[in-house]
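Possible regression after last week's pipeline update?

I re-ran a chain I had predicted before the update to compare outputs. Posting the input and the new output here so someone can diff against the archived version. Not blocking, just want to make sure nothing changed silently.
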Amino acid sequence: MSALLEPGMLVRHPEQPDWGLGQVQSNIDNKVTVNFEHAGKVVIDSKRVFLLPVAGSDRP
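New output (post-update):
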């Protein structure tokens, strides 16, 4: 799934809902950098965490 995450896509972290909506900044070698509304920039190992893509209709 992580291969499908591209810069600009919106995601949520399944274990950190308080981080809010995140925008993918980069996806290189299973390391996804995401800028979250309430947590700032976070680098996520996509082998350990399955980020949830947010469809346009799922936005607040």
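Follow-up from reviewer: compared with the archived run. The chain has a mean pLDDT of 91. Marking as no regression found.
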